[in-house]
Structure formats: C-alpha cells, structure tokens
Specification:
It is a single chain. By secondary structure, the chain is α+β, with helices and mostly antiparallel strands. Helices cover 18% and strands 33% of the residues. The chain is built from two helices and 13 strands, in the order αβββββββββββββα. The strands form three sheets. Strands 1, 3, 5, 6, 8 and 10 form a six-stranded mixed β-sheet that branches. The protein has a five-stranded antiparallel β-sheet with strand order 2-11-4-9-7, with no helix packed on it.
C-alpha cells in the first residue's frame, strides 16, 4: 500500500508539472494570423492581403495607400474600401485604383470607384469590380492576367485645409469564380508576380525570389475549368443521340417473304 501511495503521489506531481507545458504548447486563437493593420506607400512596399481579409490602416489625408492581393484565372475580383473621416472636414473626393502585375491600371466593370464625401460626412464607401481574369492574352491587350494586383487608395483634389487630417481606411478583396465561360485556350508560363528580393544561392549567385502572396489553392494558370466537364457530357449525349437515332430509323428488318 505504501508503494502504491508513493507511486500515485509521484504521478500526480509529474502531471501537475507537465500540465502548464501542455497548455502552453496548445495553439490559441490569439496566435492565428490576423489581417494587416497598415498600408504601403508605393507599389514596392504594398501590404499583402489575402482574399476574404479586411485590411485596416491609419493615415493622413493626402497619403497614397497601397495593398496587394492575388487573383487567379477565372476569378472576378471585387475590391471594396471604406474611409472614415474626421468630424470636421471640407468636401473630399476619394478614389480607388487597381493595377495588375505589370502595373497597368485596370478598368472597373462597375462600382463607385470615385466618390465625393460631403462636408462633415462620417465616411465614404468605394468599390471596384474588375473584369474576369484571363489565363492568357495577346501581348498588346490590356486584359487582366493571373498574378499580383495592387490597390491604391487616395484623395483627388484635396482642399488645402484638409491636408494631413487623420483618417482610417478599411479594404477588402473578394474573388468570384466565374467558371468555364471565361476559360481560354492558353495559359501563362508563370503568374505575374514580382520578385520580392534577391537571395544568394550556394554558388554565391543571386536568384530572384517571388513574392509569397498567392491564392489559397495555388496558381491554376487556367489548365482546368468546367468546360472539360461540359465537353465530356456533350460527347456522351451525342453518342446516345446517335444510337437512339439509328434504333428509330433502321426499321424492323427484312420481311420474312423476302
């Protein structure tokens, strides 16, 4: 009995000592990655944002705020921004622009890309829905292609009295999968993602390192779409139609008297 009690006490002591270590090793929600709380001031310093995240930033009226996000073939990105203005301000016009990986400004299909906040307004909402990202395009075309996209938020025609006033911005990007209706015959060799740095390799030569930003499931580059499914279904239906047509037109065969 004495040995049993001693063994139990020893196990209890070990359990109490190991308890905090196990608790500390368990990941907590506070350790999860959170959305960015700042913005860049140029294309090179743009803050990376994943699809579905809401990025925030505090700035001054007149600053240029930049974010970047990934968009893959077959997606139709929609960027929404909300700017909270100070209590006292004059009429301000805010604008949101979206650029592709080649830093070409992309036109918005719809959405209030530019809006004027009336004097004393608490906030202003902006939105821009781009065209569907294509897997391949002609070199002379301005079609959106897979890769990194840049968001620029700023004011246009800012009154001098409002220059430097504190503002806060919220930006969110969502991508809608369009499907095979936007698929094309071709794909890029690599997505339009800029090199983030140059790191030396084992042979002391520098190699370009691509940006870490990419879609959650990786770059598709347009190799798969639901057009494959519809093509297969169409082939099966055509074969069934051929067999049915033959069964209806062949008749009952040669008469017995012949």
């Amino acid at each position: 009995m004495r040995i049993t009690r001693m063994s139990g006490a020893a196990l209890l002591t070990l359990g109490l000592a190991a308890g905090p270590a196990v608790a500390d090793a368990t990941p907590s929600p506070s350790g999860e990655s959170s959305a960015p709380t700042e913005a860049g001031t140029s294309f090179r310093t743009a803050t990376e944002v994943d699809q579905g995240q809401t990025a925030t930033a505090n700035a001054s009226a007149g600053d240029y705020l930049y974010w970047s996000f990934p968009a893959d073939a077959g997606q139709r990105p929609t960027v929404k921004a909300t700017v909270k203005l100070p209590d006292t301000h004059a009429a301000e016009t805010w604008q949101i622009d979206v650029y592709d990986g080649l830093r070409r400004r992309q036109a918005c299909q719809y959405g209030p890309q530019t809006r004027t906040a009336a004097q004393g307004a608490a906030s202003v909402n902006l939105a821009c829905t781009l065209r569907t990202v294509r897997a391949w395009s002609e070199p002379w075309a301005n079609d959106p292609l897979p890769g990194t996209y840049y968001i620029r938020l700023t004011t246009v025609g800012l009154p001098t009295s409002d220059l430097g006033l504190p503002v806060s911005a919220e930006v969110r990007m969502d991508g809608k999968d369009i499907g095979g209706s936007a698929a094309v015959d071709g794909s890029l060799a690599e997505p339009l993602v800029p090199g983030a740095a140059a790191q030396p390799t084992e042979d002391s030569s520098a190699s370009a390192v691509l940006s870490s930003i990419e879609p959650e499931d990786g770059w598709a580059s347009g190799w798969w779409s639901d057009r494959w499914v519809w093509t297969a279904v169409g082939g099966v239906l055509a074969a069934l139609a051929g067999v049915g047509g033959y069964a209806l037109t062949r008749g009952s065969g040669r008469p017995p008297r012949v």
